[in-house]
Design a protein that fits this description.
The complex is a heterodimer of chains A (331) and B (448). By secondary structure, chain A is an alpha/beta fold. Helices cover 55% and strands 12% of the residues of chain A. In chain B, helix 2 runs antiparallel to helix 3. Classes of the chains: A alpha/beta (331), B alpha/beta (448).
């Protein structure tokens, strides 16, 4: 049984709908990637130095990052040697296997951590324009449909229109938003929201924050303060500090992960805008260089296009065509 | 501190070559390997990197280097020249319509910073070109996008035309243009919704907006942190709309900003402005040549000088110079100077522009605490005029009062007084030495 069949079987056990979302959402990503892979395989029948160089380029073009690509290709060379693979067709399976290893090497729970006995607080952090507010809107909708009592905190008091943007999501989903004036202290908004959440017996409080570039020391300190307010008011919270990351981001995503983790102990990553042509290869880089798991993936503009991250499904989405071709067309 | 990482890498790569008398082919190979890695890690598109490295290699191994007296410098020069050429050579200016109004269209992916950039540019052109701008809010999709533009408009006192989010954007633009004509606006900025370059319907909407508005500039707004995909995004938008310029945003982050290099190289579209911060005046013209120097860690002296010229009051500077010469420089003058330097922008940014600043040990992680400077200002402001003129009279009880008044401690006051004294002493020495020779610089501050 080839590696893909294994993954496929594994996935058929899961909800069809979720897998389908990955398939359609990542159609473009997959197309361009597997097209190139197939071209590569067609052009080079033999597995040689040139083949690996070309493979390196493909991975680099997917934003995987030079360091990770080097390690990955080294590993592939080893595999090819030990398994005595000379034909590039055969190597395809190995490539997929190794990539999956990279993504799933640690078995962290990619599910969101929810406190079963009371209030769960989730904090969204990230650079400007990554999609924090939109992610909160979609996530709120998702949690509400699961029967949770949700509350939103509009702690992006800086950007013009940010509070209104979250309010629109609140209105759409029928969820209350705790808000202050634009320009007020975000930590105060969070404090009020936590008090409100406690007194109303809310299950999940989702906190929006202003976008900030990770090298702005003062703004990062502000984030630390916000987190401390939550920690002080709700023991054990925040259960999740989610770094929202634009899939089109290049290597700077590694810096983002590093510095946001320093100030706010990021527990997971939300990878947004994966429905474009960006390959999201930075996921491999982040998994490889840091221990932060990807927890959610944004696959489109619709309210239910935010999906839990699933490494197997992700790879399946990435390589589905590559896989079906090699099965249907054994040449 | 954009590109700082890249500058570090290239400097590291060239260290070996710098000290040598001659450059061997192997040296060049080693260096270009490092250059390649550095550029890739900086998110420069890999195809662009390939051709760049080839060009540098060909020129570096060629005769002009081997025959030159300082081959190391020659290589650096080659890299810098090629880098500048890659980024578009000369700075490109904005195209104003021969017959007003000038119409600017902003397009790009979601979250790139279109709305913010539109507002920044409106105020920039009002300030530099005395324009009368109108902003049209044509993003009907993202919740509260119109509200965002309206808020910025209100802040900057620039009118915003909007028809809510129920009207087709093409219609909004049509009526917005009519409104602008009626109100005699000579600059119109159209803010559109973020969209994927592969979203056919929304791209068609942009084509329609273009058809009815005949924009003089179509700006693609791109996040400086974009990875390899920047090239696909830029070329798609370019094919459908014919871009005339690029605005790079969030370049004040720690991204290496390689996308800037690739977009220009692949689409031929010049980068015209860069977003350097969240404040509304944090938009600057893009200077390819200066940026290349900055990449190579040579500092951005030209930008620094320009900033200084823009914010320094010339008469005051002359007066200050005189005061320094006869050492009648008081704490009041010092306060004045702090104010002027602060006018130039965040001190971190200024430091980043100084040549060699990123080579100094520890400089990389140094961030000037603006609060400390607030403190200095507070202390001086808590002094009486006679104290400011003659700090010598400040005795223990005065110190206590000043500390109380400024919300600082006596130790803080002491430190400042000592630093000021040292500074004056230095000035005296300096003036003695440099009499009639060089113009001194007024940047000698106790907190730096």
């Amino acid at each position: 049984m080839s590696f893909f069949s294994k993954i496929k079987n594994k996935i058929t056990g899961q909800t069809e709908a979720a897998t389908e979302k990955f398939r359609t959402g990542m159609a473009r990503t997959r197309n361009s990637f597997s097209e190139k892979m197939n071209n590569l395989v067609k052009r080079y029948r033999k597995v040689d130095e040139e083949f690996f160089e070309e493979l390196e380029d493909i991975l680099i073009e997917s934003d995987v990052g030079v360091t990770t690509v080097m390690d990955l290709v080294e590993k592939l060379k080893d595999e090819a040697r030990t398994r005595n693979i000379k034909d590039s067709q055969q190597l395809k399976d190995v490539i997929v296997e190794v990539l999956s290893d990279f993504l799933a090497k640690s078995k962290e729970e990619t599910a969101l951590r929810i406190n079963p006995h009371g209030l769960t607080v989730m904090l969204m952090v990230g650079v400007n324009g990554a999609g924090k507010t939109t992610t909160i809107g979609k996530l709120a909708n998702r949690l509400k449909s699961e029967g949770k009592n949700v509350l939103l905190a509009a702690a992006d008091t800086f950007r013009a229109g940010a509070i209104e943007q979250l309010q629109v999501w609140g209105d759409r989903t029928g969820i209350d938003v705790i808000r202050h004036q634009e320009g007020s202290d975000p930590a105060a908004v969070i404090y009020d929201a936590v008090q409100a959440a406690k007194s109303r017996g809310v299950d999940v409080l989702l906190c929006d924050t202003a976008g900030r570039l990770q090298n702005k020391v003062n703004l990062m300190n502000e984030l630390g303060k916000i987190k401390r307010v939550i920690e002080r008011e709700v023991p054990g919270a925040p259960q999740e500090v989610l770094l929202v990351l634009d899939a089109t981001t290049g290597q700077n995503a590694l810096n983002q992960a590093k510095l946001f983790r320093q100030t706010s102990d990021v527990t997971g990553i939300v990878l947004t805008k994966l429905d474009g042509t960006a390959k999201g290869g930075i996921v491999l880089g982040i998994r490889h260089e840091m221990d932060i798991p990807v927890k959610l993936v944004g696959l489109g503009e619709q309210v239910n296009d935010l999906q839990p991250f699933n490494a197997d499904a992700f790879i399946y989405g990435l390589f589905a065509e590559l896989f079906s071709e090699s099965e249907d067309d054994p040449s | 501190m954009a590109f700082e990482g890249l500058a570090d890498r290239l400097q590291q790569a060239m260290k070996n070559i710098r000290g040598k008398g001659k450059v061997s082919e192997a040296d060049v190979k080693q260096m270009t390997r490092e250059v390649r890695l550095a550029l890739l890690e900086a998110d420069v598109n890999f195809k662009v990197v390939k051709s760049f490295v080839k060009t540098v290699e060909a020129r570096a191994v060629g005769q002009d280097v081997l025959k030159s007296l300082t081959p190391g410098q020659q290589v650096i020069k080659v890299v810098q020249e090629e880098l500048t050429a890659l980024m578009g050579g000369e700075q490109t200016k904005i195209n104003f319509a021969l017959k007003p109004p000038t119409i600017l269209l902003f397009v790009g992916l979601q979250g790139a910073g279109k709305t913010t950039s539109a507002a920044k540019l409106a105020q920039y052109l009002r300030k530099t070109h005395n324009k009368k701008p109108l902003m049209i809010a044509a993003d009907i999709y993202r919740p509260a996008a119109i509200k965002q533009l309206q808020t910025l408009g209100a802040q900057l006192k620039i009118p915003v035309f909007s028809m809510g989010d129920k009207v087709n954007p093409v219609e909004i633009v049509r009526q917005g243009l009519a409104q602008a004509a009626a109100d005699h606006h000579d600059l119109i900025l159209i803010d559109t919704a973020g969209r994927l370059h592969i979203d056919d319907n929304l791209m068609e909407e942009l084509e329609q907006i273009k058809t009815i508005s005949h924009p003089d500039e179509i700006f693609l707004v791109v996040d400086a942190m974009t990875g390899q995909d920047a090239v696909n995004v830029a070329s798609s938008f370019h094919e459908r709309l014919g871009l005339t310029g690029v605005i790079m945003t969030k370049l004040d982050g720690d991204t290496r900003g390689g996308a800037a290099l690739s977009i220009r190289a692949v689409t031929g579209t010049p980068i015209k402005f860069v977003g350097m911060g969240e404040k509304m005046d944090a938009l600057e013209p893009f200077h390819p040549d200066r940026m290349a120097s900055r990449i190579l860690g040579m500092g951005d002296v030209l930008s620094l000088i320009e900033k200084a010229q823009a914010s320094f009051d010339e008469d005051k500077a002359r007066e200050m110079e005189k005061k320094m010469r006869d050492v009648s420089f008081t704490l009041d003058d010092f306060l004045d100077q702090i104010g002027q330097v602060r006018n130039m922008g965040p001190l971190d940014d200024l430091l980043a522009m100084m040549p060699g600043a990123n080579k100094l040990k520890g400089m990389k992680n140094l961030s000037i605490d603006e609060k400390k400077i607030d403190q200095v200002e507070a202390i001086i402001r808590s002094m009486t005029p006679s104290e400011k003129n003659d700090p010598e009279i400040i005795n223990a009880s005065r110190r206590k009062r000043i500390a109380l008044g400024s919300g600082t401690s006596i130790a803080d006051v002491n430190r400042l007084l000592k630093q000021f004294k040292d500074m004056k002493k230095m000035m005296k020495q300096f003036m003695g030495q440099a009499k009639g020779k060089k113009r001194k610089n007024p940047f000698n501050m106790p907190f730096m």
